[in-house]
């Protein structure tokens, strides 16, 4: 569904952000795009959305070159940016003006999502808080039923109850023909939501695996004594003990600690990559 | 269903509705201000300054000032979505083609203002005429001679569309203080052309007749002739042949404006955030 081949991009000459980046994302998945600050998560999403053009290489989404921004492409992709614009309309007027552009827009679903988020439907968008506006935009994005949905830091600005509402709403909207890409640096917000992890670092994709494969091959545990463990791929010490990642030799399926995995991939890339290759 | 990715009337109408709704408040205020100023100045002239208007040609300077200034202010606001990243994303990601977005802007600013302005002028003129008739008991007549449409004055309209095309193109570059930046840029470009031309003339003819000082680039040069016997001087004008003048005129009237509009469209198409 999303095919990026040999993509190179830089904002400034001699300072490449991506070099020969390859990425393929399929429908029916919710991808979590993780990376350090400045790694290029938002830039990659903008490349997918056609808001930035590659210096070299190609970025194809549903067979369209995203840089062409053709209407038939735009009506099948929706981007929820971190910082967004909403006009000075009421919610109702916003839907009436914007929804006709999306052939598969589901009005009933939109109001259902709003209800789920506890957003009043008769309010002016400008009178809403940042978090409320974001929830309106997320609800609208989901109701468009576009094949590709891109979200850049969607949980930023959401309060704690809203984050779980967000997970619930996204989970209810996923289908086999949709590809959802969520970029975040708050990995815990995506717990139990994403089914694939993509980590971007050092100008390229350094890790791309589905959660099932990760649990099959890695084990996440908390131990009190690090010395008793034979092969520790990564350890992070806290007051409760040591959070560790080890190769999963016993076929035990425990929950993926995404934060730990993220730190492990960035600091101890080679042994982890060897396990997955 | 096959989607036409260049132009689809229904999608264009949807975008037109979206664009107009987005800017409705500004358009209403702008329209009221334009109509109010035009009528106000005329009414002030009749009622307070005791001016009498006997022919529409008398008030034509106000008409041209309003046409140029109002349209320049409106058109310079085009594509102001690019002044913020958030608005740019909203603009670029909306499922309408770049041509539809461009055409909507063109229709509202260039064509829309032109139509509105003439309706507004017509109404203002009638109000002013009514006030004048009332004040002078129908003794002073305003003659609707429309002389301003004769004697090559149609060039004001070619100028209008050319200026609009220039501002539209500039609006894809400058997103804040567009009009001021456009005027400055235009001045710099014209100055550069004049300097280059003067330099070429200087290289070709040296300081002979001080021709480099008296040039209208690519159109004429003036050669200063000094008559030492009676200590006088005059300027001999060398002008390009008529066929070339006509060609220039044709290009300015029919080619430059559309070419700038095409350029604007492609600038818009290649816009990144």
From TrEMBL, chain A:
| Cited Pfam families | ABC_tran
Query: What are the ABC transporter domain coordinates in residue numbering?
Result: 2-227
Tell me the GO molecular function terms.
ATP binding; ATP hydrolysis activity
Q: Does the keyword Transport apply?
A: yes
Kindly give the SUPFAM superfamilies that the UniProt entry links to this protein: P-loop containing nucleoside triphosphate hydrolases (SSF52540)
Query: Keywords assigned by UniProt?
Result: ATP-binding, Nucleotide-binding, Transport
- Give a yes or no for keyword Hydrolase in this entry: no
| Entry protein name | ABC transporter ATP-binding protein
- Source organism per entry reads Chitinophaga silvatica
TrEMBL record, chain B:
Which of UniProt's keywords are assigned here? Membrane, Transmembrane, Transmembrane helix
User: Please, which domain of life does this record's source organism belong to?
Assistant: Bacteria
The transmembrane residues are 26-49, 61-80, 101-128, 155-174, 186-207, 248-268
Q: What name does this protein carry?
A: Uncharacterized protein
Name the lineage.
Bacteria, Pseudomonadati, Bacteroidota, Chitinophagia, Chitinophagales
